[in-house]
Design a protein that fits this description.
The chain has 7 helices and 7 strands. The protein is of the alpha/beta class. The structure holds zinc ion. The site of zinc ion has 8 residues, from helix 1.
Length: 204
């Protein structure tokens, strides 16, 4: 086996298992994994009852997401499978991936959030559908604020007592997650949490 990030051969050494909580099914070498900074940052606001971001969005994370999303290297989903599994380990919670717009999905051929969850063997419910096409960054601030409905709930919410956990690859402004949480709450869901793989941290 070789490292998915640098292609160097992987040797089985016990010290790996202590690293980032990665078990023996690790798919990247310690040198590459070391570049990801685990932060486990928690925030909340009036719509999102809890947001847990696992790693800092640093240079390694940028490269990773570029390779994963735009080069469509689906095998890279394996790298964070152990960390996602340990964070999303409550079987009573309902996991809801943030979807891509259907047009983007066709272009990219796979949804990276679904791929992350599948690699980690986490069952999820695709309850949301994106209703606007464009990438947030291409819009002006006023255009962004004018877009009130970014997501539509596409299935019946059977138990609004359950805790719903949105999953996304990166937390930037939180707008996407808040819109998704709002859509669920309008359907009667009482508690919506979120987990993101990455989140930018302020430079020291
Ligand atoms: Zn490597």
């Amino acid at each position: 086996m070789t490292c998915l990030l640098c292609d160097k051969p992987l040797h089985d050494r016990p010290t790996w298992q202590h690293f980032l909580g990665i078990q023996k099914d690790t798919s990247a070498c310690p040198t590459c994994l070391e570049k990801f900074e685990r932060i486990d940052q928690f925030t909340e606001d009036n719509i999102l009852d809890s947001v847990h971001s696992i790693y800092a969005y640093n240079e390694a994370a940028r490269e990773y997401l570029h390779q994963f999303k735009f080069m469509q290297d689906v095998a890279l989903a394996q790298i964070f499978a152990p960390s996602l599994r340990s964070v999303l380990n409550d079987s009573k919670k309902i996991i809801v991936p943030i979807p891509m717009h259907p047009i983007n999905k066709r272009k990219r051929t796979f949804s990276q959030v679904d791929a992350l969850l599948e690699a980690a063997n986490i069952s999820y419910q695709s309850l949301l559908e994106k209703t606007t096409e464009s990438v947030m960054g291409e819009k002006s601030r006023s255009e962004r604020l004018a877009m009130t409905e970014l997501f539509r709930v596409t299935a019946d919410i059977r138990s609004n007592e359950a805790v719903y956990v949105l999953v996304d690859d990166i937390y930037t402004t939180g707008t996407t997650l808040r819109h998704a949480a709002e859509a669920l709450k309008q359907c009667g869901v009482q508690r919506v949490e979120a987990v993101t793989l990455f989140r930018p941290i302020r430079e020291k």
